[in-house]
Amino acid sequence: MTVRYESAPGSFRYRCKICGCLTPGKASYLETVSIPAGLFDDDPKVRPRLHVFTSSRAPWWTIQDDLPQHEKWVPGYGPKP
């Protein structure tokens, strides 16, 4: 069982009612489903292609690769008004 909550205006996430961990969810404005990486038991055989929400990263975290970076939403993928 999951519980839905609004994590940002127009953006919703889902958590397990029992343990509180994030669960897969689908944004109404996207064609994809988001699956938290912590849910995988094994290597999913995919690798990051970009960094999102870099403006809110931990101040001690340094991005050390050449992947594209987006301070907020990836253009075209943010919540629709």
From TrEMBL:
> Which InterPro entries does the record match to this protein?
Mss4-like_sf
Q: What is this protein called?
A: CENP-V/GFA domain-containing protein
